[in-house]
Design a protein that fits this description.
The chain has about 270 residues and is α+β, with helices and mostly antiparallel strands. It has a six-stranded antiparallel beta sheet with strand order 6-5-4-9-8-7, with helices on both faces. It has helices spanning about 10, 20-30, 40-45, 50-60, 85-90, 90-105, 150-155, 160-170, 185-195, 240-265; strands spanning about 35-40, 65-70, 70-75, 110-115, 120-125, 140-145, 200, 210-215, 225-230. It is built from ten helices and nine strands.
Length: about 270
Amino acid sequence: MAEPVVNGREEYGPHFVQSVARVLAVIRTFDAERPVQTLGEVSRETGLDRATARRLLLTLADLGYVSSDGRTFELTPRVLDLGYSYLSSLSLPELAQPHLRWLARELNETAALAVLEGNEIVYVALVPSTRLAAVKIDVGTRFDAYATSMGRVLLAGLPEAELEERLAYLHLERKTSRTVGDVATLRAEIEKARSQGWALVDSEIEEGLRGAAAPVRDRAGRVVAAANVSVHAGRTTPALVERDYVPMILRTVRLIEADLVSSAAR
């Protein structure tokens, strides 16, 4: 049961904002054993009355952190945004960096890690290669998710309802002649990435830039990031990327995930 938060001001002092504590208590009631809950269950777990719990849940739903079918509630992937600052400033990029260095060194190509923020990917770790000097990518660089390999696997990691909602409002812009041009094709590519566990995108975000990526999952199995290798299309073929690069990307992802699990267990 989540710790009740009715006497927070008395316990912590006059600065204490009880509504913030109550919202966090509501969020913490959802876990692997209780991913979906009714209003009554949330009320019981938090110690809040049903009217208060309902207002907080509906507010979280309005903000996109909770979804509801009218009877039950569950968290949405947007809750991950609450931990984005921590992930981007310390934990995940630090854990991934040595593995990305190994990957970049083995392939002599640029290796990177990105997270999904809205409809964009954001680079949070990077080991650049001089062989890709013509393409300007830094930590903090953003690209439209739909046109990148990391974006495809990150979108594939979303729950189906969340993915469909995003696709319904997505505006596709042609970056190159190869950029995916319609939602039906994009959905098929995302499903392909989901089923095979990796994605390959060829000259869709920039002409001559080919990328392959795989998802990074946390200990609960949720996709929290993607790792990729970017290459100049003139130096290889999609078939060679699949044969020679993808297995090494998948190996790198497994090592990152192992470190992520070990770090969370400390």
